[in-house]
Amino acid sequence: MSKVAGGGSVKRQSDSPGQRLGVKRYAGQKVSAGEIIIRQVGATKIAGEGTFVSKNFTIHAAKDGVVRFNKRKVRKFTGRTVNRVEVIVE
C-alpha cells in the first residue's frame, strides 16, 4: 500500500481570458462616428437613433454626438414583452 497519494493528471486545465464586455462610453460622454459604445453577447441592449449593431452585437456610434440611454419595451417573437435599454447618439 502506498504512503503518498497519487498525483493524477488534469484534463481541460487551461482557462480562457476575459472578453472585455460591457459599456465603453457612458451617458453624457461625447463619441465620434464608428466608436464602440457597448460590447455585449446577444442583444441585451438595442441600437437606437445614431447607432448601429455589428455582427457580434457590438453597438457603435454612426455619427458624432453625445450618448444617451433610454428604457424601452420590446416585443419578442413569442409575443412576450421584455425591457431593453436603447442606446442613442444625439
What count of structural domains? 1
What shape does the CA trace take? elongated
Look up the CATH topology.
OB fold (Dihydrolipoamide Acetyltransferase, E2P)
Helix/strand/pairing category? mainly beta
Approximately what portion of the residues adopt beta-strand conformation? 35-45%
Largest sheet descriptor = 4 strands, antiparallel
What's the quaternary structure here?
Answer: single chain
Would you kindly provide a written description of the structure presented here, covering whatever features stand out?
The chain is mainly β and about 90 residues long. β7 and β8 (about 80-90) form a beta hairpin. It has no helices and eight strands. The mean pLDDT is about 90. It has a single domain, classed as RNA polymerase II/Efflux pump adaptor protein, barrel-sandwich hybrid domain (OB fold (Dihydrolipoamide Acetyltransferase, E2P), Beta Barrel). The strands form two sheets. The chain has a four-stranded antiparallel beta sheet, with no helix packed on it. Helices cover about 0% and strands about 40% of the residues.
Mind sketching the topology for me?
Layout: E1 22-23, E2 30-31, E3 36-39, E4 45-47, E5 51-53, E6 59-61, E7 65-75, E8 81-89
Parallel strand pairs: 4-8
Antiparallel strand pairs: 1-3, 2-7, 3-6, 5-6, 7-8
Keywords:
single chain; 90 residues; four-stranded antiparallel β-sheet; OB fold (Dihydrolipoamide Acetyltransferase, E2P); mainly beta; four-stranded mixed β-sheet
Give a concise summary:
This protein has 90 residues and is mostly beta strands.
